[in-house]
Write a structure and sequence with these properties.
7-stranded mixed beta sheet, 359 residues, two-stranded antiparallel sheet, 15% strand, single chain, 15 helices, globular, Rossmann fold, 2 domains, Arc Repressor Mutant, subunit A, alpha/beta
């Protein structure tokens, strides 16, 4: 096969362009590892908080790190455009946009959580490679703990920006119900970011978060206490297909239905647990209806994460492995089989599709 490939006539310009693309990906991959180190050790924060920029020696002193590593790290980060370098003064700093995106967890533009996700998923590679050959899968709870930290940090900015302002209003009648006092389930709640955002916005409603990962539920309970909403939020360990029949007015699935081993079972449980005129909000990663519609940076990112985590979790439970780039039609078929006759894309963002399902 290799001989056949090399015997083809090669366009030198296209060859160099492709090799450059691969080398660029090598650099990006290595920089992602160093980005995780920058997040974990507070290197970005120290730079962002500096009024006059820093030399490598100053950044090392401020973060109690070794200057020789910091010197090399800064070259990498400046080459990738993550930090700013002033050659006239030999000092590194962060532009406003860089600082917000890499250090401000309250901003909807914060992307720091992604470094934790990539690091954790890369650590799963030996097991995932074996599953390529032998089948099987890796459960969500078996991953590196930084996956759970990173997932919350990665998705929370989008929830902060859109959940209350755009997604809830896009659901027929949901905003009025929540304002007046509704019962809401957040299935696959993780650390509870989405649940707590809703609880703070709608003080007359009651919220129930469920997740199969016990440590995440423990964290969610602490987050609710810290946010002062524990009196209106209850978190518990539970599977989606075993959702209690509490007659919820709204049941939410935030970026989790495609991961599940039994998404149809989850939909059946949800349809049974809804109050009359209740609805499901299903938030899924942005994806195309056809395979080729995913050939872009969003599709590349989500299909990569899906291979290393989402698909594998479903396969570990002998599930259908919808995956993060499941089409609208695939998701509609799951909802229909689960008892929902009305399924529509209610709204979207560059990174998300938001569906409404009604029985």
């Amino acid at each position: 096969m290799a001989q056949a490939a090399t015997s083809r006539e090669i366009d030198q310009d296209k060859m160099m362009e492709f090799v450059g693309k691969v080398v660029g990906d090598f650099g990006a991959s290595l920089s992602t590892v160093l980005g995780f180190i920058g997040q974990k050790l507070g290197l970005y924060e120290a730079l962002a908080n500096s009024d006059d920029g820093m030399t490598p020696e100053e950044l090392a002193a401020a973060t109690d790190t070794t200057e020789r590593y910091i010197r090399e790290w800064l070259v990498n980060q400046a080459a990738g455009g993550y930090v700013h370098y002033d050659p006239a003064r030999g000092r590194y700093s962060m532009l406003a946009e860089q600082a917000v995106a890499l250090t401000d967890q309250s901003s909807p533009f914060f992307v720091g959580g992604g470094f934790y996700v990539v690091k954790a998923m890369a650590n799963a590679q030996p097991r995932i490679a074996d599953y390529f050959k032998n089948g099987g899968g890796m459960l969500w709870g078996e991953h590196d703990d930084d996956l759970f930290v990173g997932t919350e940090r990665f998705f929370r900015p989008g929830y902060t920006m859109h959940l209350i302002n755009d997604w809830v209003p896009a659901m027929k009648g949901a905003k009025d119900k929540l304002e007046n006092g509704a019962k809401v389930a957040d299935v696959g709640c993780g650390h509870g970011a989405s649940t707590i955002i809703m609880a703070k916005a709608f003080p007359n409603s009651r919220f129930y978060g469920y997740d199969v990962h016990e440590k995440s539920i423990e964290t969610a309970r602490q987050r609710a206490a810290d946010a002062g909403v524990s009196d209106r939020v209850t978190f518990g360990v539970g599977r989606a297909r075993e959702l209690p029949n509490e007659q919820f007015d709204l049941i939410c699935f935030f970026d989790c239905l495609h991961d599940m081993g039994d998404p149809v079972g989850a939909m059946k449980a949800a349809s049974s647990a809804l109050a009359p005129d209740g609805s499901c909000m299903i938030v899924e990663p942005m994806a195309g209806q056809t395979v080729e519609e995913n050939f872009n940076i969003i599709g590349r990112t989500f299909s990569g994460a899906s291979t290393l985590c989402c698909t594998s979790n479903s396969l570990a439970e002998d599930g259908p492995a919808l995956g993060a780039v499941a089409s609208d039609d695939a998701l509609r078929a799951v909802a229909n089989e689960g008892g929902f006759t009305d399924f529509r894309r209610a709204t979207e963002t560059p990174f998300n599709r938001v569906f409404e399902a009604r029985a």
